[in-house]
Design brief:
The structure is a homodimer of 198-residue chains. By secondary structure, chain A is α+β, with helices and mostly antiparallel strands. Chain A has three helices and eleven strands. The first copy, chain A, has two domains: 5-46, no CATH class; 51-193, Alpha-Beta Complex (Nucleoside Triphosphate Pyrophosphohydrolase), CATH 3.90.79.10. Chain A has a five-stranded mixed β-sheet, sandwiched between helices. A three-stranded antiparallel β-sheet of chain A has the order 1-2-3, with no helix packed on it. In chain A, strand 8 (106-117) and strand 9 form a beta hairpin. Chains A and B meet through strand 2, strand 3, strand 5, strand 6 and strand 8 of A and strand 2, strand 3, strand 5, strand 6 and strand 8 of B.
């Protein structure tokens, strides 16, 4: 369905590609593209490193979540742990590192759920979604300039906060869709044991 | 929970604010901020107009969705209808306009669901989520340069495509969370009759 093959009447093709801004975090491009009707237009977007998100399930069924101030939206947000891949890092290693650094937890079992695209009109970003269980607590190692609270909540609490508009982060809401359908037995996961980081 | 009041230990405060790029679509800023520990850092982000997304439910229970090529991710994506607010436009008017322009449908009943933030580390954007029912078909009026297919699907089909990784747009996945919990009776909606646009 995401394959572009049968959809040539929708596809845009690149004519040129120009970097328009490279800051410390944002990397913006402006491409000229051919539209399906042969006309041309401009597409501006951000190149973004890939990222991972972790849905950490405690043995008692409660979820590990974070509370973090997000400057662009000027709000403290409730989120599942997430972060960008380091260069050369694979997605599972990134997920394990982010979980350990941000929450202190290590997990003995991991399952890959899927992928989400966070801002398809603006950014190349996609986020790889992982489930983690068999959690053991440890010490956090936050990055410089990173401030966040870690706490636990039940699925029912997270869903109620979503319904009330207190949890509005699209990646975390997508995580709740996965969690709800996994826990109700509809979406099976393929769990793998992963030895702890020394 | 999203209130910043009890979370002063997480909050960042703006010191300065600089526009770094203004293109035809992207509008980027670079602010210097004070961190909770008194140090300073830089936050780069996009200012984005607000947007709306519509979850259109046909009388037979099937959903109206779109297939659209999204250049930043170089993929044809399955999405609920969505679009940006025009200047001075309110969210419901935007939702009605986007539904009519992109799909041709008008709806006689509308319900506000909630809000999602699509990219909280990168963008100010939020998307207002609306449900629409009492649909009557009409003629599409696509913007210049807009190419998209409209089709219908059941909730079960959309959930299956999400599970299989064929539907990965975070706003649409968030819409599925709302839809699933609305249709299973957990999340009530407050429907309002809205007269058709002349």
């Amino acid at each position: 369905m995401n394959s572009t093959k049968p959809y040539e009447h929708l596809i845009e093709h690149r004519l040129d590609h120009t970097e328009v801004y490279k800051g410390s975090f944002l990397h913006a491009f402006r491409d000229t593209v051919t539209l399906p009707d042969g006309k041309t237009t401009v597409r501006e977007y951000l190149k973004h490193p890939c990222a991972t998100m972790v849905i950490p399930i405690r043995d008692d069924g409660r979820l590990i979540v974070e509370r973090q101030y997000r400057y662009p939206v000027q709000q403290v947000m409730i989120e599942f742990p997430a972060g960008k891949l380091d260069p050369e890092e694979n997605a599972l290693d990134c997920a394990r590192r982010e979980l350990r650094e941000e929450t202190g937890y290590q997990a003995s079992e991991w399952a890959h759920a899927g992928v989400l695209h966070s801002g398809i009109s603006t950014s190349t970003e996609f986020i790889d979604i992982w489930f983690a269980r068999g959690l053991s607590p440890g010490t956090r190692e936050l990055d410089a300039g990173e401030f966040l609270d870690v706490f636990d909540a039940s699925l029912e609490e997270l869903l109620e906060w979503a319904r009330l508009g207190l949890l509005t982060d699209a990646k975390t809401l997508t995580g709740l869709l996965w969690l709800q359908n996994h826990l109700n037995g509809s979406w099976k996961l393929d769990w793998h044991s992963v030895p702890p980081t020394p």
